[in-house]
Every structure is written in C-alpha cells, then in structure tokens.
Amino acid sequence: MLQVCLNGPRTRAEHPSLPVSPSELAAEAVRAVAAGAADIHLHPKDAEGRDALEPRLVAEAVTAVRRAVPRGARIGVTTGAWAAPDPRERAALVRAWTVLPDHASVNWHEDGAEQVAEALLDRGVGVEAGIFSGTDAAHRFCASPFVGRTLRVLAEVTDPEAATAERVALALLAELAPVRPSPVLLHGEDGGAWPVLRAAVRLGLDTRVGLEDVLVLPDGTEAPDNAALVRAARVTGAAERP
After folding, report:
1. What is the pLDDT of residues 205-215, one digit of tens each?
2. CA–CA distance, 239 with 148 (Å, rounded to integer)
3. Is residue 181 very low, low, confident or very high in pLDDT (cuts 50, 70, 90)?
4. Domain range spanning residue 21?
5. Count of structural domains within the chain
6. What is the sign, positive or negative, of the torsion defined by CA atoms of 208, 213, 215, 221?
7. What is the distance of C-alpha 44 from the center of its chain?
8. Is the pTM of this model over 0.90?
9. 3-state DSSP call for residue 41?
10. Which residues are 232's β-sheet partners?
11. 3-state SS class at 186
12. d(CA 182, CA 176)
C-alpha cells in the first residue's frame, strides 16, 4: 500500500505547491490517487497555515477531500502535539470532531498518546501508531495495551541522511520486533525518504510519499506536486521488487 502525505507541518514557504486550504487538499488528493496512491494522510490547517485539530477545520478538510476522491480511498489526519500541546485538549478535540476521518496518526513518543488513541478508538477512528526513530516510542508502544488495536504502525525514520537512513530504518524495525504488529508502514524524510522507501518495498512493507516527507524527486530535482512524487514512488518500487 502506498500512502500519500499531502502537506504535513510544512508551510507554503517550503514549497510553492504545498496544499493548505480544503480545496487545495482535495485537488492534490485527486491527482495523487489518480497517480497510484491508495491512502491519504493530511494536516488540516488554520487561516495562517498552521496545523490545527479544531472540529470545524478537520471537518472542512476531510469533507472536501472525501467528496473529491474515488470511493474507497481512505483519509487520515494528524493529531500531532504541536497542534495542541495539552494531551487533554487533544483528546477533547478528537471527541468533538463532527466529521470523522477514517484514521488518524498518534505519535507514541508524545505525552498523552494513549489518551488520544483511546479517544479516536471510542469514535470509531482507526489509529496509526507513529513510532519515531531516535525516541522511546518503540519501547513505549511495545509495552502498551494498544498493541493489536491499531490500524497500522507508522515506522517513521527521522534521519534525513541518505547514507544512514536505511540503517536507522532496520534498527527501528528491530525495536518493534517483540510485537511486530501488522501492517507496518515504513517511511523516511528529506534525504532519507527515497532510500527508506526502497527498503520498505524490498521488505514487503507499506510505505508513503508526499510533500510532507520529501520535496524532491529521486534525481534531486524539485517535485512539482504530490502526484509527481507518487508516480516516482511507483516507478522506484517497481524497480526494487524482486
């Protein structure tokens, strides 16, 4: 499964085509799904372009994308602590959502991760457990009662260096070995994005690509949009499969 991550916490200053508004997210999602993405991850944003979890903003973003993409394309959002640092507030916002995504990511190294995950599951929203390299997230998740209750694990390699990211990815997967939930989506960021994507394909794992993770194509040129990244990921994946 190839997921597209449309925008992330980035701003328009980092890429001129970064989708911010609901209509922009919808248009980018349509093109990305047409290019081969099966799943969508997005960050709803406020009028200043900052990530937000307020019910109105989540509803507007999810509704716009859901109306635009083909039936069957699943839509997920972030619950990152940078959008609402107080975990009690994050959980309360989730419980107040009026339009529900299919799933939402919860970063397990953040305080209150289990509280937010419980709120999502209570609403019938699937949980993507975000396990960042370089944190204690894998240890915390392996000891968590949420093992077996999540939709998938996002093994997130935060090393941005092409030369070392794959090694970090393998170490992160080893940390998850005591439970090795299935499925696992493995992805990297910036300079590590393409090496980690190739590793994920070779290992038979789900992966993702999009302007949240990387702004350039495998040849180093700037990606014009998310769809171009998805097309490049499919070509790269085809070349890596046995």
Report:
1. 999 999 999 99
2. 32
3. low
4. 2-240
5. 1
6. negative
7. 13
8. yes
9. strand
10. none
11. strand
12. 11
